[in-house]
Amino acid sequence: MRAATIYYKNLLAGLLTESDDGYVFHYDESYLSSSLAKPVSLTLPLSAKPYYSKVLFPFFDGLIPEGWLLDVAIRNTDISILDRMSLLLLCCKDCIGAVSVVPFEASSHE
């Protein structure tokens, strides 16, 4: 199982996990109780209930770069273009916009 912490404007918003059954995203309880809480996506409104998907949620898949930037990432690693979670973990810590994706292991040391 692989996991990533999801940040919204530097606030820990939730956790995205990948398993053999698919993907789960759930918001952090502290984030949900914050007055600053905003949904990371319109397709993932604030909810205490987890979201499930057989494929990587389209919002998170959309954070993965395209074109020449994706080509650079693939060329410099052993990651397949089909391994969307690995690409998300590799490329989306400092992506454009309010949402950041940090590999779970790395985020626990920061």
| Helix residue percentage | 25-40%
Q: In percent, how much strand structure appears in the residues?
A: 25-35%
Shape: globular
Number of helices: 5
Mean pLDDT over the full residue set = 89
Largest sheet: 5 strands, antiparallel
User: Taking strands numbered 1, 2, ... along the chain, how are they ordered across the largest sheet?
Assistant: 4-3-2-1-5
Q: What are the SSEs and their pairings?
A:
Elements: E1 2-8, E2 11-19, E3 22-27, H1 29-33, E4 51-53, H2 58-63, H3 67-75, H4 84-91, E5 99-103, H5 104-107
Antiparallel strand pairs: 1-2, 1-5, 2-3, 3-4
Q: Mind explaining what this structure looks like?
A:
It is a single chain. The chain is α+β, with helices and mostly antiparallel strands and 110 residues long. The chain has one domain (2-107). The protein contains 5 helices and 5 strands. Strands 4-3-2-1-5 form a 5-stranded antiparallel sheet. A hairpin with a 2-residue loop joins strand 2 (11-19) and strand 3. The model is unreliable at 106-110 (pLDDT under 50).
